[in-house]
Amino acid sequence: MLACKRGSPQYTTGSSQNEDEPINNCQTASSCTSNYECTTIGSMQMCCPTVSSICSNTGGRPIDAIRNTNFDPGMSMKRSFSLSFSTSSRYYYDAEQGRCIAFTYNGALGNFNNFKSAADCELFCAKLQCKYGTPLKIGAANQRCSNNADCPSTHECQSDHNVCCPRPQAICSQPLRLGDCKQSVRRYWYNAVTRACEIFDYTGCQGNDNNFETLLECQNTCENIIPEPQCPQGDAYKDYQGNYYVCSNSGAGNSCPVNYECYFDGYVWGCCPTKAYTCTLSPHKGVTCGSGSSYRYFYNSQTQECESFQYNGCDGNSNNFATRDDCESYCSVGGCPSGGTPERNEFGQLMVCSATQVCPTTHECTSVNSGSSVVNRCCPTRSYICSLPPQQGSACSSSAAAQVCPEGEKAYVNAVDMSVRECLINVEGSCPSNYLCRFNALKNRYYCCASITGDLCPAGKALYREPSSKSPIRCTISSSSNQCPTGYSCQSDVPGAFQGYCCSASHICPNKAEFYLEENSQMPRSCTVGAFITCPTGYSCQSTQSEFTTGYCCKGEVASVSGLLH
């Protein structure tokens, strides 16, 4: 049955109440009364409640004179008609405060300003404040503004409501978010890499702003938006409308402004700040935004050292580093001829050595360039450097790499610059072999991650490998298409994962025991239960089903199937 997205359609008035029918042939906004708008529902044009009507105190229903709250708690039906509806926590949009607030719903009736989650409420009612997307927040409250200077460059001030609304570039650069619920709602998202709007099944909650109800709305919002170029340091150059420049070393695109250079991040060209420009900039505290303030580091070209400063959370400039090490590495603090970094004193400052200020025995006093001057630093000796243990994968356990992947997985680190590899969901070759594209909700980005142990399937499940290449098959979990062969399904140990591998639908051995892999095929060795020696030493032929005579070579003696966990 066709119906409005939320609320009841407007009805015609017949001679009797039973003759009332919904208006299904409206042509213009004037065809509907106030608080209704002409909306296309399938092949019909219906008068549906406006967003402002649904998100008001009346909630798209006639006003209830008895109620004295901004929300409608509904009614309890426990004692009426032998029905039982339990109470639950719901959310309503408070037009006076401009935000969604929790309330206790009694279980029945009420009005349509009633949402199961805060995210659902914000997604539906946000258009009252922002044309696209949701307002920027500090905690649970909207960040207030009086002009664009009060908002980060990704947002603009909506003066009617004094909130920071996202620009199209910010919305359309967001990655695909399916959500965390169990519904299946057809929506559209803008793929900035392919520069096209694509259909997807939204699960109903915990999505992001790159989520449109119609293809036309997606296309009108995101026309010609390109993905954000990933610069080695700092943000790519944007025009006055907040759109990224597209440049090219061949001269086909825009030329970059002074102090910027054309850079290709593997997907798109962009104008990135030069190292010389970055390391001469004064610190910029940036603009206050929802992420809050923190301490960062900048390179002081006067003292030739990296120093801390308080950062407001958004914008600023490219002379902004998360750690002192990042700052020193990028701006080449030190300059020791044999490598390594100069010694620091107990206050964390670089030591200046002399005849009276001697260096530790592991270091030697060396003249190094520091900007336009020369200064004496305590640099590590060659013998000390060569006596250190080899650095094996230290970048892989660095704070940056450790914080982007789910527990039990490691990030792929680019060997050239030790940066963590970002990826694009369902784009072939976006991640190396045995790595999956995982979403990090905190950073709102996708990263290439792999199991630390090397196990690609849940315990007790067998990984399917292509017979010719012996490679595992990467797949999309809960996809409507059948990506795995018969007897296998797309699985992952990571809760809420979007990608996984083709693993056996059932456990290979009783009690999830270890199974023997054929050397050539790298698949479990099948066998006949009860037959003479068919498995290698230490393994026995076992089946998870007592009535089956065909099984697999499982570690240990024959086990009872009663303890099997499905």
Automatic annotation (TrEMBL):
| Location of region: Disordered | 1-22
PROSITE patterns in alphabetical order:
BPTI_KUNITZ_1, BPTI_KUNITZ_2, PROKAR_LIPOPROTEIN
Annotated BPTI/Kunitz inhibitor domain residues: 90-125, 172-222, 279-331
Q: Which domain of life is it from?
A: Eukaryota
Q: Which GO terms fall under molecular function for this chain's record?
A: serine-type endopeptidase inhibitor activity
Return the protein name: BPTI/Kunitz inhibitor domain-containing protein
